[in-house]
């Protein structure tokens, strides 16, 4: 994979104590944990990289010279591999200074790889740039590890989708009914308003109807019940579609076609 020229690499000064392995000085960030979400060619020898970082969220980086065949870090800018990244600048597109592979994670293969691309597409389309989400970053790392260890993809994806929507302010609490102002009851039926949260279902509703038990299970990350699995899948498709404003998710359609996820 493309990497950077050696002459672009700088020696990092000692990190400041306030941010984990990161220092802000002269608009320069050093040693920030991150993952490549997506990259595409820029000019003849460079790349624009969409990076998900722990302390700075999703950012855009110009990797100058990254496409040159003898670039020292050519293999560093790979998806689903933990990186230590450094960059400079304060505009919407910063300049990537360095990217080093950290290691410690198994590669994604087969179905897990496709699921990983689905996660990345969600992050690119739903996260605003320069909006930190450290909790979601940790969830992303955990999700990649679970997929790499062949944990059930349907459960793993639902947990990540739920975490993503909570971080972006959608249906933050699935156990509180907005129409009764009381707790969700396991035996009742509900719909989830993307802007407000669960309310008691009506006969006229066209939104997905789910049981209170499903909502409670989702809040507890418990997807063992087959009914919860089915209803949570329908609900998450609905909520994600609302957030996307009708824009399609290419990788999800492939997953639906192949695996009914």
Automatic annotation (TrEMBL):
Q: Does the keyword DNA damage apply?
A: yes
What are the DNA replication/recombination mediator RecO N-terminal domain coordinates in residue numbering? 32-103
Give a yes or no for keyword DNA repair in this entry. Answer: yes
Q: Name one Pfam family in it.
A: RecO_C
Q: Sorted alphabetically, which keywords does the UniProt record give?
A: DNA damage, DNA recombination, DNA repair
* Top-level taxon of origin: Bacteria
Entries under HAMAP family matching the protein: RecO (MF_00201)
Task performed by this protein: Involved in DNA repair and RecF pathway recombination.
| UniProt name for this protein | DNA repair protein RecO
Write down the species: Massilia agrisoli
């Amino acid at each position: 994979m493309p990497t950077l020229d050696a002459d672009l690499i700088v020696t990092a000064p000692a990190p400041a104590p306030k941010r984990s392995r990161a220092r802000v000085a002269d608009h320069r960030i050093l040693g920030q944990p991150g993952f490549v979400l997506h990259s595409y060619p820029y000019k003849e020898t460079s790349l624009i990289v969409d990076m998900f970082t722990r302390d700075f969220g999703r950012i855009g980086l110009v990797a100058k010279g990254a496409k040159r065949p003898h670039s020292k870090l050519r293999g560093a800018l790979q998806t689903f591999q933990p990186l230590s990244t450094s960059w400079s600048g304060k505009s919407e597109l910063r300049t990537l200074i360095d990217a080093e592979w950290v290691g410690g994670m198994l590669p994604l293969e087969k179905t897990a790889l496709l699921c990983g691309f689905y996660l990345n597409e969600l992050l690119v389309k739903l996260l605003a740039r320069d909006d930190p989400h450290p909790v979601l970053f940790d969830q992303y790392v955990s999700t990649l590890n679970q997929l790499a260890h062949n944990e059930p993809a349907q459960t793993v994806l639902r947990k990540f989708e739920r975490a993503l929507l909570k971080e972006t302010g959608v249906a933050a609490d699935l156990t509180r009914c907005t129409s009764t102002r009381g707790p969700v009851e396991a035996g009742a039926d509900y719909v989830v308003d993307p802007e407000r949260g669960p309310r008691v279902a009506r006969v006229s509703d066209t939104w997905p109807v789910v049981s209170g038990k499903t909502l409670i299970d989702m809040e507890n990350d418990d997807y063992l019940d087959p009914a919860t699995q089915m209803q949570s899948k329908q609900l998450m498709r609905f909520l994600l579609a609302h957030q996307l404003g009708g824009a399609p998710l290419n990788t999800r359609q492939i997953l639906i076609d192949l695996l009914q996820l």
